[in-house]
Structure formats: structure tokens, C-alpha cells
Specification:
The complex is a heterodimer. By secondary structure, chain A is α/β, with parallel strands linked by helices. Chain A contains ten helices and 19 strands. In chain A, helix 1 runs parallel beside helix 5. Chain B contains nine helices and one strand, in the order αααααβαααα. Classes of the chains: A alpha/beta, B mainly alpha. Chains A and B meet through strand 3, helix 4, helix 7 and helix 8 of A and helix 2, strand 1, helix 7, helix 8 and helix 9 of B. Strand 3 of chain A pairs parallel with strand 1 of chain B, so a sheet runs across the interface. Chain A: Keywords: FAD, Flavoprotein, Oxidoreductase.
């Protein structure tokens, strides 16, 4: 790996090496720019990941966050990662494309918020991401027959088969979903073997996480990654431009000089850093409009062994609920099948079903007979759902973040609808003892993009309105949640912003 | 642990790192245990509560895990990345909730919680769960949130233990070794491969 002296003014410092930082790093380095990426976590060799859920905590962001609101969101194992590759080390790699309607929800319904980018401008980048990292999917995608995937889908586990069975019985379309993993060997990456531990880190590099896709490209092109370096401050010149990023490494503060900074630390950490330094917040929008997908789950028991830990966890998909006819809410949701590792499942049983005592002990026996379904649904932006700084000190002296999330009527209605329809699917698949768990997942918003500097933090390219050499490339810039998993649009926006930085003038 | 499960732990279907973690978990010295993070008083109450939150006899017989000891040990660790904003840090929340519940138990039922029988504790916990009980330091809602944390800690520790996984026939950790990375080939309607551990405690079909 190439190394840059901290006294050299590099072309770009990238903060965070996940879905937002890694594509940016690769594209800028390949164009000949000098790039230093700061990563708060460690390097992990893929082979050292473990399916043991407690041990796998080393790829989760475990610095404590404070969760508030009527729907306080769990962090740690659920939502935020650490290590070179960021949250893509633990992400589920479910890779549906954004739906064009979700990017113009306000035009459609008068609620939510439109994106300042047209779907047609983003689509080429979504396709590029799929080609770059390796995505598997069905030969013919029912909701978009023009779509092509480079790899055939992995083997269906019992949850996927049950969901397809249930959907067919009640007249919903379903298919193998688009999944960011490879099903045939490619270079040093092996084909998926259905080990089921995607969320604990992929050991044979089949999952298309950043550390086995964009990061090797970035390193080959001369980018430097500094692991275990936690950015917490900036140096600025008299005009307010950023001239250096200050980070904590082994207890000491170090500064890297730079021409520009790209923040890719995620919806919580990017907002936290900007709030802590007081930068880029003329609009008072930093930290606001925090969104999490309505991720309702439905679980049931079938009469045959399912072993929910086996196989790619969430293969089956239906897009039939992106705009359901009987909706009493705006927006929509995707449904996917759910396998699950035992500790995550058991935690859901406690927190989502409220079981304790003998009925908990008894119900744990159902694990190997369980099938699950999960939704990801629209979450409308609200200024009161937000990230702020708490009054407790965290890493490198930065206050711990406090995250408030409360469902509005729309999220509540969507949750009820999703619970009802997934229960119908589970019943039709032959499940009994069916229960619904209210939960949210993913983190979005807090530094939204827009066209009005008084109402948004960055412009439609991800560049700060206030500081011309500060960019943000992660899901904090999402103006709305959409119902697609965030990794693909984060990567697509990252490639698009990189083109803009390089003066390639992409479409808008 | 069952002999099949022990054989699998020695097999090439599990990595050395994962095997070491499970062996360390199984070898945790829980008897006798002196609390290192909670006070003696709070720890005694925690022992009484964990027995009610997650009764183990039907799965483990007399070889129950000391959940209170493992929770106390966990309270010295880095935590799980988040906490409810209105609860103090985990160790302090446990201390306040446990001692507070002891006082409420004494006021309401006339006994100290460590001397209360299972039914009495169930009555208390039902009220906690319904957000119908507060302590000196924690409101009804905050005590309920702490109780959710307690239940989660209990079940996470329990289901991660190799003896419990052996009883339930869970094979998640046998998804591939350090040499050949086997994964799982047999799934769905095809059921289980011959090597997979037997499920000793199947669901009760009372539906």
C-alpha cells in the first residue's frame, strides 16, 4: 500500500471506508488523485470472521449511542459497522434497485420529499455498481424484465421457499431477489456456499462487500487506508475552506493536509462530526430528518425442520407492495424472506414478541422450525427525528450521539399493513403461531441533499452549500428513505459524486 | 453437551476462532461467583429475577447456567453499541433497577425480593412489563425499558451457550472450517445432512 506523508496536501481525505467511501476512493485513485482514507475500525481478514454472533461484535459499531423517541432504534449489531469496508462487512447484501416513484414521492402524494436527481440520472450508476461488485439475481426479474444480473441466484433456503409458496397461494408475484454476492468463483473470491452468516462477515469473499470489491481497486491505484484512525476535527483557512483533517490514532491527534474532504461516515457519525465541529450547518438541517426503514417482521412455525441459519438469509422478494392498492398510507414497502441466526432471532422473540418466563424457554425450541418475512418500508422525513449531541463524552472527546425516532401515522399504518400481508403469506405457506414484530432498520437522512441552501446541507452532487471543498457521500444525504435497502444507492451516489469531483459532469 | 455436538466441535466444520470462543464460554467459572460489577445486594436480586425471566430446567435439567454471573461479567465489557437514552449506563441501570425492585417488593409484598417465591416475582415482573411500576430512581417507562434489556441479556447469553445449542440442535457455528469452507448444501425441503446435530427439544405441537 502506498503511503502519503501527513505534511503532503493530498487531493482527498475520505472519512469512512464503507459503501459511501470505498467507491469514491477507487474512482478518485484510478483517476490519478492522491487519496487517504481514514477508517475508525480495524482491518479484518475475511477468513477470520466468525458465525458466533457474540464474537462477530468486532465488525459492529459498538461505541455507545443513545436511542430515544417512541420507536428507539437499536444500534450495534443491527445497523452500523466498523472496520475497513464499514457496514458492508455485516450488511445483508440485499440489493434491490430504488423505485423511481419513491424518488418523487412528494410530487405523487404531497408528502415526503422529492430527490433533486432524476431516477434516469441515477440508474446508470446503479447498474455500474452491480457490474463492479458482482450481484446475483433471477434470469427474468418480474417487475423489470429488462434487467440482467451477472450471476444466477444462490440456493433457496426454507424461508425463501415458504415465502414463494405463500405468495403464490394468495396471488402475489415473488422471485429470487437481487443479492450482492457471487455464485461462481471470480479471482480470489469464492462462490457463495450458503453458510448463512452474511451478517457476521463473509469468510470466503463471496459477499460483495467493499473490502473485496472497491477497496482492492483503490489500493491498487495508490490510495492509502489508515485504519483505527478516528476523525474528529478539521483545520480551516481564513476563507473557511478545510485544509486538514484531524484524527485520533493510538491516543494522539494527527492532521492530514488535504485539498478536499469527503465524509462517508454514515447518517449518525457524519452528522455527529459536523455538529461537533459546528460546520456546514447554516441551514440548521444537520442531524434532522433522521429516517429508518419500517422493518416489520413476521415469524411463524412450520411442522418441518427449517434450520433458519442455513443459506443466504433473505433471498425471496416481492415488489408488489411498493404501491399497494389497499394502502392507507403513502409510499410502500418491499417484502423479503428471512432466515436468521439464533441470537438475533431470540433477541427478537424477547423484544418483539415480549416473551419471558416458561413461554420463552418453550418457544426457543421453535427456532429450527421457524420461517420469517421482513419488510422495508418508507419512513417520511420529520425534522423532529434527529441526531443531536448528548452531554456524555465519547471517543476522542466527541459527545456521544443521541438519536430520536418516533413513527408518524404513516409509518404506523405501513407497519400494520405490512404485518397483515406478511401474516397472510405466512399462513398460506402453512405456518402457525404467527407473530409480528415492530422494528426499524437502516439509518438515513441527517444531511439531506437539495436545491435550497436554507433547506438542505448538500447540493444534488453531495457538495456542502457552505464549504466548497467539503463533500458528503453516504446515506445521510438521502432526502427520503425510499423502500430499497440503502447500500446500492449509497454506492451509486458515491460514483456519481466522484465523477463530479473529477469534472466529468454527470447527468442530473 | 451431547456427544454429537462435542464431536462436531472437534471437527473441521468449525473454525479455530469459533471453537475457542465456544470452549471459553463453556468453561466460564460461574460457581462460586462473586459479582465484580454489581453490589452483592443487587446481584442476589438478579439471581432471583433471572430464574424467573428464563427458567432453564426444561432444556438443561439441573445444569442451569448462572445467568446472573454472566450478566455481571458482561457489564464490565464494552456493551452492545446502544442504550435507551433515559437509562443511565448499563451497570448503573442494573444496580438502580434491581435495588429499587427489592424496595418495591418489600413495600408491596412485605418480603425482600431474594425471599420472594416465583409467583410473587412473576406478579412484580408483570407489572414492570406493563409499565405499571416505578422505583425510587426509574419511572414506569424506564423500568420497562430496563426489563427489556434484562430479558435480552438473558436470552442472548443462554442461546449462545454450546450446551443450549446442543439441546436445540442448532448448527449455525458449523458452517465451515478453516480449511475447506463447506457451508451448507442441503436446505429447504431436503432437510438436514446426516452430519447435522439432532434436534433434541422439538416444539410442542399444541396448536
Amino acid at each position: 500500500m502506498k503511503r502519503y506523508p501527513t505534511t503532503e496536501t493530498v487531493d482527498a481525505v475520505i472519512v469512512g471506508t464503507g459503501a459511501g467511501g470505498a467507491p469514491m476512493m477507487a474512482v478518485l485513485a484510478e483517476a490519478g488523485l492522491s487519496v487517504v482514507a481514514l477508517e475508525a475500525g480495524k482491518w479484518h481478514a475475511p477468513a477470520t470472521h466468525t458465525p458466533d454472533e457474540e464474537q462477530a461484535g468486532d465488525i459492529y459499531w459498538l461505541e455507545e449511542r443513545l436511542s430515544d423517541g417512541k420507536n428507539p432504534q437499536p444500534f450495534g449489531g443491527n445497523n452500523s459497522g466498523t472496520g475497513v469496508g464499514g457496514s458492508t462487512l455485516h450488511y445483508g447484501a440485499f440489493m434491490p434497485r430504488l423505485d423511481a416513484r419513491d424518488m418523487t414521492l412528494h410530487t405523487e402524494t404531497g408528502q415526503g420529499r422529492d430527490w433533486p436527481i432524476r431516477y434516469e440520472a441515477l440508474l446508470p450508476y446503479l447498474i455500474k455498481v452491480e457490474e463492479d461488485i458482482g450481484v446475483s439475481g433471477p434470469a427474468s426479474y418480474p417487475w423489470d424484465p429488462t434487467r440482467r444480473y451477472a450471476f444466477p441466484p444462490p440456493q433457496r433456503n426454507e424461508a425463501a421457499l415458504a415465502m414463494m409458496r405463500g405468495c403464490q397461494a394468495i396471488g402475489l408475484k415473488s422471485a429470487d431477489g437481487p443479492v450482492a454476492l457471487i455464485t461462481a468463483k471470480q479471482g480470489t473470491r469464492e462462490a457463495c456456499v450458503g453458510c448463512g452468516a452474511c451478517h457476521q462477515g463473509c469468510r470466503n469473499q463471496a459477499k460483495s462487500s467493499a473490502d473485496v470489491t472497491y477497496i482492492p481497486r483503490a489500493l491498487a491505484a495508490g490510495a492509502e487506508i489508515r485504519a483505527e484512525c478516528f476523525a474528529h476535527d478539521f483545520k480551516r483557512d481564513s476563507q473557511g475552506r478545510i485544509t486538514g483533517v484531524i484524527y485520533r490514532q493510538g491516543g494522539k491527534d494527527v492532521m492530514q493536509r488535504c485539498q478536499r474532504v469527503i465524509l462517508c461516515a454514515g447518517a449518525v457519525e457524519t452528522a455527529r462530526l459536523l455538529l461537533h465541529t459546528g460546520l456546514a450547518n447554516r441551514s440548521d438541517q444537520v442531524g434532522r430528518n433522521y429516517m429508518a426503514h419500517v422493518s416489520t417482521q413476521v415469524w411463524g412455525t412450520v411442522d418441518h425442520v427449517t434450520r433458519p441459519n442455513k443459506g443466504y438469509p433473505s433471498l425471496a422478494i416481492t415488489e408488489d407492495m411498493i404501491r399497494p392498492k389497499d394502502a392507507d398510507f403513502v409510499g410502500g414497502y418491499l417484502i423479503q424472506s428471512l432466515g436468521m441466526m439464533p441470537m438475533t432471532w431470540a433477541t427478537n422473540v424477547v423484544r418483539g414478541r415480549g416473551y419471558w418466563g416458561e413461554k420463552l424457554t418453550r418457544y426457543l425450541r421453535d427456532y429450527n422450525y421457524a420461517i420469517g418475512l421482513g419488510a422495508h418500508g418508507e419512513c417520511l422525513p420529520s425534522p423532529d427525528n434527529r441526531v443531536i449531541l448528548s452531554n456524555e463524552t465519547g471517543r476522542a472527546g466527541m459527545p456521544k450521539p443521541l438519536i430520536t425516532l418516533s413513527y408518524s401515522c404513516n409509518e404506523k399504518a405501513l407497519h400494520r399493513h405490512a404485518g397483515l400481508w406478511m401474516t397472510r403469506i405466512a399462513e398460506a405457506a402453512g405456518a402457525r403461531d404467527i407473530w409480528t414484530s415492530e422494528r426499524s432498520a437502516h439509518m438515513m437522512g441527517t444531511c439531506r441533499m437539495g436545491t435550497d441552501p436554507d433547506d438542505a446541507v448538500v447540493n444534488a452532487w453531495g457538495r456542502s452549500f457552505d464549504i466548497e471543498n467539503l463533500w458528503i457521500s453516504d446515506h445521510s444525504i438521502f432526502p427520503s428513505a425510499t423502500c430499497a435497502n440503502p447500500a446500492a444507492p449509497i454506492m451509486a451516489l458515491s460514483l456519481r459524486a466522484a465523477d463530479k469531483i473529477l469534472g466529468r459532469a454527470p447527468l442530473n | 453437551m451431547t456427544s454429537t455436538y462435542e464431536q462436531l466441535l472437534k471437527s473441521d466444520r468449525i473454525s479455530a476462532r469459533t471453537r475457542d470462543a465456544l470452549e471459553a464460554r463453556a468453561a466460564f467459572k460461574e460457581h462460586p461467583y462473586r459479582p465484580r460489577h454489581l453490589s452483592d445486594r443487587a446481584f442476589t436480586i438478579l439471581e432471583a429475577l433471572t430464574a424467573v425471566v428464563l427458567p432453564q430446567k426444561s432444556l438443561l435439567g439441573r445444569k442451569a447456567l448462572n445467568l446472573a454471573a454472566r450478566i455481571d461479567a458482561r457489564l464490565g465489557g464494552p456493551g452492545d453499541g446502544w442504550r435507551f437514552a433515559h437509562l443511565p449506563p448499563d451497570r448503573q441501570a442494573y444496580e438502580l433497577a434491581l435495588c429499587g425492585l427489592d424496595d418495591v417488593c418489600h413495600e408491596k409484598l412485605g418480603v425482600r425480593l431474594k425471599d420472594a417465591d416465583i409467583e410473587m416475582i412473576q406478579v412484580l415482573l408483570n407489572e414492570v412489563e406493563a409499565a405499571a411500576m416505578a422505583t425510587k430512581d426509574l419511572s414506569e417507562d424506564h423500568l420497562r425499558q430496563w426489563f427489556s434489556d434484562l430479558c435480552a441479556d438473558c436470552v442472548q447469553i443462554f442461546i449462545s451457550h454450546p450446551s443450549v445449542q446442543a439441546q436445540l440442535g442448532i448448527d449455525a457455528v458449523f458452517n465451515g472450517g478453516d480449511g475447506p469452507f463447506q457451508g451448507f448444501e442441503i436446505m429447504g425441503a431436503a432437510g438436514s445432512a446426516p452430519w447435522e446435530p439432532p434436534i433434541l427439544n422439538a416444539p410442542e405441537t399444541d396448536a
